[in-house]
Amino acid sequence: MYDFDKMDKRLIVFGYLFRVANRLQSKMDSQMKDLTAKQWFVILVLGLFEQPPTLKQLAVACDTSHQNTKQLVMKLAEKGFVTVHNDEKDGRAMRIKVSEQWEQWDKDNEQIATQFIDSMFSGMNMDELTNLSSSLIKIFDSLDSIAEVSDV
User: Fold this and answer.
1) pLDDT single digits (tens) 10-29
2) Residue 131 half-sphere exposure, CB side, CA atoms within 13 Å?
3) Are 78 and 34 in contact (CB under 8 A)?
4) How many CA atoms lie within 13 A of 78 on its CB side?
């Protein structure tokens, strides 16, 4: 096995970011009824907007492609958790809004979500959470400065 004390800490963090993302998705998918982790995330991001966002705005806020966001939104619409309608000013733009069915699901499952989050962070104190939050934001922001590699 690896000697993590001697390893470059950046490589440990790099590897664990992937592992945490995979494990988080797996655990959430197994515990959330009717929704996947990615679908739940999209709905949570929807809640950040004052007005129903366009599909493009939602994709940017989720930091994922328009195509991936559209697939998730269409699945959520099939399940009745969101409604999709054309923008009044630009008929090409789709606006997404959570439905009453989502609001009921959220109320019914609030305890499960709270317990999940509480369990996930149970081994950390507020200083550790603050430092982790700050560090993840810095990593996220620094990824913007990495140039895209083009196929030349």
Assistant:
1) 999 999 999 999 999 999 99
2) 5
3) no
4) 9
| Count of C-beta atoms within a 10 Å radius of residue 56 | 13
Q: Which residue has the tokens 């400065």?
A: 145
Residue 139 tokens, joined: 């990593």
Give the number of C-alpha atoms closer than 13 A to the C-alpha of residue 73, restricted to the C-beta side.
Answer: 26
Q: Angle 120-43-124 (CA atoms, 0-180°, nearest 5)?
A: 15
Condensed to tens digits (0 to 9), the pLDDT of residues 20-79 reads 999 999 999 998 888 999 999 999 999 999 999 999 999 999 999 999 999 999 999 999
Count the helix, strand and coil residues of the chain and give each as a percent rounded to the nearest 5: 60, 5, 30
CA-CA-CA-CA torsion sign (11, 15, 21, 23): negative
Instruction: Give Cα separations from 51 to 5, 14, 57, 98 (angstroms).
Output: 49, 36, 11, 11
SS3 14: helix
